[in-house]
User: Fold this.
Amino acid sequence: MRSLLLTLLLVPAAVRAAPVLVPFSRGIELRTQALADPASADLVVQSRQLAAKYGIRCVAGDAFGPKSPAVAGAACEVRDAAGTLFEVKVTGVNSVSVALDVRQTGTLAEASPRAPFQALPADPEAGVLARYQMTAYAIDGSPVSSTFANLVLRGDGSYQFGESRGRWSVVQGLLLLDGEYTAWGPGALGDDGRRLTFHSKGPRFTVSAGLEWVDPRKVVLTELSQPSR
Assistant:
C-alpha cells in the first residue's frame, strides 16, 4: 500500500488528470487546467475552433498559429504565456463544450499530411499536392446551383479556395481548413484521395459539399487550349 501511494504521489497531476470539459466561449489555464476568463486564458474554446494567443499547431513541423479547428481526435501543441509547451488532445466535442486532455511538454507525433495524396499523380504546378472541383452543393438537403473555384492544397500546408486562403491539416483521415471555411467542419477524404465530402450542421441550416479530385492531365489540356495573348 505504501509503495502504491508513493507511486501516485510521484506521477504528475497532468498525466493522471481526467479530460477537462470546457464550455464554448470559456478558456483554460494550461498549467493548472483551471477554467479561466477568455481574456486571460492560454487556450479559448469557441464553437468550431481552438484559439491560443501564444500559439497552437496540430501538424508536426507546421508553424504555430492563433487558431485551429476543434475536431474530436485532434492532437495539438499549445504554448502558454511563459512559452511552456503543452500537448492538448480533443477527446470529445458536443453542442456546448469540448473535452480536452492536457499534458505538459507534449511532443506532437510526427505525421505526414501528404499521406492521403501520395497515391495521386503529380500536379503540373510545383508545390501543389491536389486540386478538387465542387461537384455537389446542398443546403438543408436541397441542391444549390453555385459556381465555386477549385480547392487547391499545397505541400507547405496552405490552401486556396477562390479568394480565400488559409492553412489545412489532416487529422485521422479528415481534412481541416482554417479561416473562412472552418465553418464547414472536417471533410472526409476517400481512401484514394479522389473524393472529399463536407457536412456541417449550423445554427440556421445544414451545408453539404462534395468535391472530386481534378486530374492533372485536364489541367494541362485546359492551359494548352487557352488562346495565347
Notes: Confidence is low (pLDDT under 50) at residues 1-16. Residues 195 and 212 are 5 Å apart (CA to CA).
